[in-house]
Amino acid sequence: MTSDGERYDHPERMRSREQATKFMAEDIVKIIVSGRVQGVGFRFYCQRKAHEFGISGWARNCSNGTVEVRASGTDEALSEFVTALKRGPKFGRVEDISVNQSGDGSVTDIEAGAFQIR
After folding, report:
1. Catalytic: 70?
2. Catalytic residue (one of 36, 43, 87, 100)
3. 64 a catalytic residue
4. What CATH number has the domain bearing residue 54?
5. Model pTM above 0.90
6. Does some domain include residue 17?
7. N or C: fewer beta carbons within 10 Å in the chain?
8. Rounded to the nearest 10 degrees, what angle do helices 42-53 and 75-87 cross at?
9. Checking DSSP bridges between strand 67-73 and strand 56-61, what pairing results, if any?
């Protein structure tokens, strides 16, 4: 407490609370994209669109020929991101896209605004 009776929060705790509040305001989704999405620059397309919409996360090829994407962002940004992924890159062809809420926090290790290709 300060001398005037106000509660004093340590700057580190305040920063953590601000980050937690920001994180809680963002959703995390798991996206599975199928079609001709490997070998056509789809993951790089994901990365470019993620930067465009302020999305954090990652994309990786799966052994079954799909691409898995984990993304964190605001509802509006995620909606625009998913719409862009449905279009895909010039030489790709998206046949199906599945979007599910992800409660496992799998993008928390990624710096805000960063999108990795795995």
Report:
1. no
2. 43
3. no
4. 3.30.70.100
5. no
6. no
7. N
8. 150
9. antiparallel
- 53 inside domain: yes
Residue 86 in any domain: the answer is yes
Could you tell me if 111 and 75 are in contact, meaning their C-beta atoms sit under 8 angstroms apart? no
**8 in any annotated domain:** no
- The number of distinct structural domains making up the chain is 1
Structural domain containing residue 75: 26-117
For the record, the structure tokens of 57 come out as 């996360």
Q: How far apart are CA 40 and CA 28, in angstroms?
A: 26
User: Tens digit of pLDDT for each residue in 38-85?
Assistant: 999 999 999 999 999 999 999 999 999 999 999 999 999 999 999 999
Backbone angles phi, psi at 71, to 5 degrees: -140, 145
Q: Are 93 and 33 in contact (CB under 8 A)?
A: no
Options 61, 93, 100, 118, the catalytic residue: 61
Mean predicted lDDT score pLDDT of the chain: 82
Helix, strand, coil distribution of the chain in percent, nearest 5: 35, 30, 35
The neighbour count for residue 91, using CB atoms within 10 Å, is 11
Distance of CA 83 to the CA centre of its chain: 14
